[in-house]
Design brief:
- By secondary structure, this protein is α+β, with helices and mostly antiparallel strands.
- It contains 10 helices and 26 strands.
- The strands form 5 sheets. Strands 13, 16, 17, 18, 19, 20, 21, 22, 23 and 24 form a 10-stranded antiparallel β-sheet that branches. The protein has a 6-stranded antiparallel β-sheet with strand order 1-2-3-4-5-26, covered by helices on one side. Strands 6, 7, 8, 9, 10 and 11 form a 6-stranded antiparallel β-sheet that branches.
- It starts with a helix and ends with a strand.
């Protein structure tokens, strides 16, 4: 505190100059120390300039004195080698391939090598070709080196049993080409073999100088794959451990839906479309059945049915689908309720919901239903009205074009028209209405629930299929196929369609 007061007391009064501090001795010594870096462009010829020049010359001389000796080194005298020793050293040395390939794939040619007038060819070439998308037998054989005439004969021969358009892209084809007839001639085809279908192997072989087609049917077992097990820590992990494909497990979870609420003690039960060939290949298909057992009793049973592959419950009721799809891709610009009409200029009930969209945008049915009106409808312009289950209905107004007709059945998400500005409209948009008991309601307050129901003969077939799949033994499709027993023609009975192909066809 005293020091602070002393400093404050020594401050200059108004109108007086600040007292000068005494220079620091350390700063004084630093300022007196001579600087080494001297600018030789200033004060040329002065004493300071001469000092800088002397320092520069000294540094150059010191650098030259520290340089290494640049005199040539004395190498070992060359060794005199005999021709054989020189050739041996040359072969073992590292030399580029362009100088004889001594260090590459083969030894360089010496004077002892006698050049041949003609190079012998391999009598047989085994190769593999692959079908490309949209490929033909002629193009595939031509790429492999088969002559055009023979390729056309083979294509005509195989095309009768399996058209090239039905062969999957990427299918490998094993080829065997024989010896050329003469120089410059294409190699003849000796053998061709490929998997035409999962249950058919086609082979073309040369018999008595002619190419013959030999179809080889492959026995295929179509027993579905049924897997059961405890849910445990999770369905996915448990089912994968039992051998279920990942795709089938995903379909299983989607079929059951979130309302299944599986517990650790529950059992999953799934049946998968499964085909296995006698040659060992396996082809997995869609999930056919999804079930859950709790305390040994079925809690959920879902079966795939119909052309669309939808899942139905054991009672014949389809999967429940909740909520509506948005009728058009666009934001809501006007909601349900009283408003001032932009054209009529007075306030009245806006009985629907408007969506902004550009002219020609597709309009979708929000759920399954039947078209009860399709045509011109006063201020609505081009208008479509649908009737849905449960006494509900929907209306779509101001369309530029209608895509359905009166009385037609429509599905959820089906295009029923296109956005326009017909009727009392100030621009392209969709006016969407919802009806309950014939009266309009707020579309935002409605969630549709649709379920398909099987009836009559279709329901009987459905239940028969369900009982058939439930009789499948779990894991039976994973067992190896038993060898096919030899049977006589009388025991075989009627020929299958695949067996009707002649066992041997010869190209003429």
């Amino acid at each position: 505190m005293n020091t602070a007061r002393a400093r404050i007391g020594t401050a200059a009064q108004p109108g007086q100059a600040m007292p000068r501090r005494a220079p620091n001795p350390l700063v004084r010594r630093i300022r007196r120390r001579p600087r080494i870096a001297i600018d030789l462009g200033r004060a040329v010829g002065s004493r300071r300039w001469l000092t800088g020049m002397a320092v520069l010359v000294g540094l150059i001389a010191l650098t030259l004195a520290a340089l290494p000796d640049l005199s040539p080194l004395t190498a070992a005298p060359p060794v005199s080698l005999r021709p054989g020793e020189a050739d041996e050293f040359r072969s073992l040395g590292i030399a580029p391939l362009a100088l004889g390939a001594d260090s590459g794939r083969r030894m360089g040619a010496t004077a002892a090598v006698t050049p041949l007038k003609a190079t012998p060819e391999r009598p047989r070439i085994d190769l593999q070709a692959r079908f490309a998308a949209g490929d033909s037998y002629e193009r595939l054989l031509g790429r492999a080196g088969v002559g055009a005439g023979e390729a056309a004969l083979v294509a005509r021969l195989i095309g009768g049993a399996m058209p090239a358009g039905q062969v999957a892209a990427g299918t490998p084809v094993d080829l065997v080409l024989g010896r050329r007839i003469g120089p410059g001639q294409p190699r003849p085809l000796e053998q061709l073999s490929f998997r035409a279908r999962f249950d058919l192997q086609l082979e073309v072989a040369r018999q008595a100088g002619r190419l013959a087609l030999v179809p080889r049917p492959i026995r295929v077992d179509t027993t579905p794959l049924r897997l059961r097990g405890k849910v445990g820590e999770g369905v996915y992990r448990s089912a994968r451990a039992s051998g279920a494909p990942a795709r089938a497990i995903q379909q299983y979870l989607r079929a059951l839906g979130p309302e299944a609420r599986l517990a650790a003690g529950d059992e999953y039960d799934m049946v998968i479309d499964w085909r296995r060939a006698a040659t060992g290949e396996v082809e997995e298909g869609e999930l056919l059945y999804a079930g859950v057992l709790r305390d040994g009793r079925p809690r959920h049973q879902m079966l795939r049915w119909g052309r669309e592959g939808k899942f139905f419950e054991a009672s014949g009721v389809g999967q429940q689908r909740e909520g509506m799809v948005q009728p058009v891709a666009g934001p809501v610009t006007s909601r349900y309720g009283p408003r001032r009409h932009p054209i009529l200029r007075f306030t009245r009930l806006h009985a629907g919901q408007d969506y902004r969209a550009s002219h020609g945008t597709p309009i979708y049915a929000v759920t399954d239903g039947t078209v009860t009106y399709a045509g011109r409808h006063g201020g609505h312009g081009n208008f479509v009205r649908l009737r849905h289950a449960g006494g509900l209905g929907t209306g779509y107004a101001h369309m530029s074009r209608i895509a359905v007709r009166n009385g037609a059945r429509v599905r959820r998400g089906q295009v029923i028209g296109y956005v326009g500005s017909t009727g009392l409209s100030t621009g392209p948009h969709l006016h969407f209405e919802v009806y309950r008991g014939g009266r309009t309601v707020n579309p935002a307050s409605v969630r549709f629930t649709t379920r398909a129901v099987l009836e009559g003969r279709e329901l009987a077939n459905f239940r028969a299929r369900l009982a058939e799949l439930r009789r499948v033994v779990p894991g039976a499709a994973l067992q190896p196929l038993a060898p096919e027993p030899a049977v006589t023609a009388a025991e075989r009975g009627p020929l299958r369609e695949i067996d009707r192909v002649d066992s041997t066809q010869v190209v003429r």
